[in-house]
Amino acid sequence: MTAALTAPATTDRPAPAPRQLRWLLRLHRPALLTGAAVVLLLGAALLWLGGPLTDASAAAWKQYNACGSTPTCSYDQDSILLHKDVYTYTNFAVLAVPFLVAAWAGGSLTGREMESGTARLAWTQSVSPARWLASRLALPAVLSTAATGLLAWLHRLAWTAADGRVGTTNSWDHFPTFYANGTVPVALALAGLAAGVLAGLLLRRALGALAAATVALGALWAAVHTALPHLWPTATETSGLRDGPTGLGIMVGQGVVTADGDRLDLPCYTSMMPGCESTLSDMGAVGFYRDVHPAAHYWPLQLVASGALLAVAALLAYAAFRLLRRRTA
């Protein structure tokens, strides 16, 4: 059995909040400076992407479209490829920031402090365990929200600047683009922070808490991704047997519709395909259907998914307080 951690009794008043914040900033100064450097560099890359790179790539696409079928026509292919590569790298970099928050929260913010005894030292300096934990959640939550919110906003600006001008721009429903363009990275960062803090308190080992927090956030994101299409009512597009299923956006389901209104699985995509017409006739199909989330559903899906992540973050933070209270009773 693991012995409970006992907070030393003290008759002094709790340390003022500014002193705790100064201590927190001094203790984690290297991580904060590294995080600030990452945000500045990534932000600069996104500004470069949405400005000069987009303009150069858009001009190259104009040259390409003006070429038509002329085989000897030249255009600035390097600008197109550079824009595409930088967009891909920055897209995934924005989505990686919440995992960095989770890893830091588990490995350094709480895991290392529990492992080295720094937390117990703080409790001897007139800081109650609850206030110690609150300081480990409050300031990092503000910084994480500001950093991820800024990067997501800059990413959306860069994507908007290229949409309709650069032919290789991903559509809004391309999932990496979908997530990085909205509020989900902010909610993921807060959930990662809470998961890391809880992992550090549970395991009391820096490396183990780092790995556990990262894996937990990945599993949480996978669960949200799986549930995402079902978080908001879909729109149904119907089409004729010759046209095949139609409807752009995030597809949830598709198939054929019978004269009685029944929905059946999709055997083929158009009655023009060999053998498909007879198959559809045997099924009694009169048309195709497709359930999709159109572009108008972007923000409802973002906000509902973010709300679910924030609810999980609140539950994880509550569990961390309950665990600390039980161990320091």
In short:
The protein is of the alpha+beta class.
In words, what does this structure look like?
With 329 residues, this protein is of the alpha+beta class. The protein folds into 2 domains: 17-230 and 298-327, no CATH class; 235-294, no CATH class. Helix content is 66%, strand content 8%. The protein has helices at 17-27, 29-67, 77-116, 118-124, 129-162, 175-180, 184-203, 206-227, 276-283, 298-327; strands at 235-239, 250-258, 263-264, 285-293. It has a 4-stranded antiparallel beta sheet with strand order 1-4-2-3. The longest helix has 40 residues, at 77-116. It is flat and about 80 Å long. It starts with 16 loop residues before the first helix and ends with a helix. Residues 1-15 have low confidence and may be disordered.
Keywords, separated by commas or semicolons:
disordered N terminus; 329 residues; 4-stranded antiparallel β-sheet; 10 helices; 4 strands
